[in-house]
Design a protein that fits this description.
The longest helix has 18 residues. The chain has two domains: 80 residues, no CATH class; 114 residues, no CATH class. It has a two-stranded antiparallel ribbon. It is mainly alpha-helical. Helices cover 37% and strands 7% of the residues.
Length: 197
């Protein structure tokens, strides 16, 4: 049988469900635990899992003194990211992906950072080409086409890239793990001027 410890009882009582509260309005922990245990046991058995082989521990959420499921939900909602003013007076959400994107752009030289403020794609492409001709490393999908830096980085890593060509460099002839004629991608031999992944 499944043993439950530290379970915080909560339920919405309807006419068809047994109550989890006693006559005094206090939570009936043993009733909740037995109902939850029976439900989990039944579900495990339906999947062919022996409930005697399952060790389940559920810990209550405790962040304040008078913690209930409703105050926990309210505290979680209040922790939802809110807009924060960035240095360039645009709104940025406090989010890991957007933080990565902001860090990516902040790590670029000021001349390259300026590309993200050019709305017209043709003008941005011309400015990027001028920067590349001047020796700057231009990551075309991100800096010219406006793709999301975190998504591009994740995709490249997932595909096995350790470097990608910058603007005006020859494209990769064969993706990592593939061969195109005699050419194959060499993850350990990063060409000068290419972009590290």
């Amino acid at each position: 049988m499944i043993q439950l410890n530290g379970v915080s009882p909560f339920s919405i009582n309807t006419a068809n469900q047994p109550t989890l509260f006693n006559a005094a309005g206090q939570a009936d922990v043993s009733s909740f635990q037995s109902q939850l245990s029976a439900a989990l046991t039944s579900t495990l058995e339906q999947f062919g899992i022996n409930p005697n082989n399952v060790n389940l521990s559920i810990a209550p959420i405790v962040t304040g003194s008078a913690q209930t499921p409703f105050t926990a939900a309210a505290e979680t909602a209040s922790a939802t990211p809110t807009p924060a003013q960035s240095s360039d007076s645009t709104l940025a959400w406090k989010d890991p992906v957007l933080s990565f994107d902001a860090s990516y752009w902040a790590s670029q030289p000021p001349a390259v950072q300026a590309l993200q403020k050019i709305d017209d794609p043709a003008q941005r492409a011309m400015a990027a080409a001028q920067l590349a001709a001047s020796g700057y490393q231009i990551d075309t999908p991100i800096m010219v086409w406006g793709w999301d830096p975190s998504k591009v980085a994740t995709l490249r890593q997932d595909m096995g890239y350790t470097w990608v060509p910058s603007a005006f460099q020859s494209p990769v002839a064969a993706a990592p793990g593939l061969t195109n004629g005699s050419q194959s991608y060499n993850p350990t031999n990063r060409p000068a001027g290419s972009i590290a992944v």
